[in-house]
Amino acid sequence: MKPEEEFLNAAAWTEKYPHCYPRWYGNFLAFLCINHPEYAKTVYSRGVSCIALYQIGRGLLILNGPKWQQHRKLLTPGFHYNILKPYVTLMAESVKEMLDTWGKLEPKNGTASVEMFEHVSLMTLDTIMKCAFSYQKNAEIDRDNSYIQTVFDLSFLFYQRLKTPWHHNDLIYRLTSKGRQFYKACKIAHHHTEKVIRERKDSLKNEKELEKILKKRHLDFLDILLCAKDENGNPLSDEDIRAEVDTFMFEGHDTTASGISWLFYCMAQNPEHQQRCREEIMELLGQQEEIQWDDLGKMTYSTMCIKESLRLYPPVPLIARELNSPVTFADGRTLPKGFLAALDVYGLHRNPEIWDNPEEFNPLRFSTENSKHRHPYAFLPFAAGPRNCIGQQFAMNEMKVALALTLLHFELFPDPANLPIPMPQIVTRSMNGIYLKLKALR
């Protein structure tokens, strides 16, 4: 399949096969693509293993069994609302820096066409460095976006590898030019995270410094990793810490960048909803200069728009799992242990059996009343079950902050000369970028 055809095919196949269908790569690799809530519930509400072709680090994303349970338990406190609360200010700082950059791009009394994904990726990386690692030395990130490029390369190479069955063998893959490129990119990503960890470890060696850190600010994600101990009092190994940092930095900024970029695109395409969100935010903030934690829960209409954009353009469009025990579906059909299942989130979210007029942008689908009557597995942008996304509240908060501040400062318009062509990699991207026209409001 050509990349630009994959989503079109997924939507067409979902319409034809509204529960599931096998997708073959060659003659020897098959996934059962699941695009119906009942099928999704059967597979994803139970214990399933993650397939391990994603090799930037053996973190929470791909760990299985007792080690996954241990890491999930150790990391869950890092996403408690007491930890997330102070992040709102840091998120707002990063968004404002992006908006300042946009202000310089915009010509006087006119509109500027800006590629969203690159700018938003820099902003979300900056955010995650501040929130997860209290890392303020970000000038080199602004000047040199090699990490962003590395993440892009890893996404592309991973997806190509997934679709090339003979590249699933590590030995064969290492001998190919793509494999060499992949492992070189992993090395760059590892170097980046090792630097962050090394600097924090050095600061924690001093007992007075450690006491000062613990008293003066929240425990961030890296603090939790460095201080975590299992039930036997053993800390995480350096390799485990690096794997979790790699996973969180990779998944925490790239997926959110996709979500925010497509949210802005949906706002530009639907000016009446954009204006309604803007009015809600202006009324909510009033004369208040800064957005606060308590404001996020009151962004009712904006939250519905965010969810509708996540429905149409889920940041992670396909979630593959390996069954660690046999499965029997409600209709009596079965799958054996070891079979690969893939939640086709894009197909699920556009399934005409579940969603009326699935191509239409309609935030009212997510009103309290309409949500009551929907299957709990019909909307899964953050997956489901025990392996759902641990950082989903962090991501939703960041999307709310980005939307609120952006709509206060800019009006978003589509760029008809550069309409995006959605394509799946690890995240939902566009083949030709996501270009929007910006007009400053203040």
Molecular structure report:
The chain is α+β, with helices and mostly antiparallel strands and 442 residues long. It has a single domain, classed as Cytochrome p450, CATH 1.10.630. It is 53% helix and 12% strand. The chain is built from 19 helices and twelve strands. The strands form four sheets. It has a five-stranded mixed β-sheet with strand order 1-2-8-5-3. It has a three-stranded antiparallel β-sheet with strand order 4-12-9. Helix 5 runs parallel beside helix 19, helix 6 packs across helix 13 and helix 13 crosses helix 16. Its main location: endoplasmic reticulum.
What secondary-structure arrangement, pairings included, does this model have?
Layout: H1 6-16, E1 20-25, E2 29-34, H2 37-44, E3 48-50, H3 65-75, H4 81-84, H5 87-105, E4 112-115, H6 116-133, H7 139-143, H8 146-162, H9 170-174, H10 177-205, H11 207-216, H12 221-227, H13 238-269, H14 271-285, H15 293-296, H16 300-312, E5 318-323, E6 327-328, E7 334-335, E8 340-344, H17 345-349, H18 368-372, H19 392-409, E9 410-414, E10 422-424, E11 428-430, E12 435-440
Parallel strand pairs: 2-8
Antiparallel strand pairs: 1-2, 3-5, 4-12, 5-8, 6-7, 9-12, 10-11
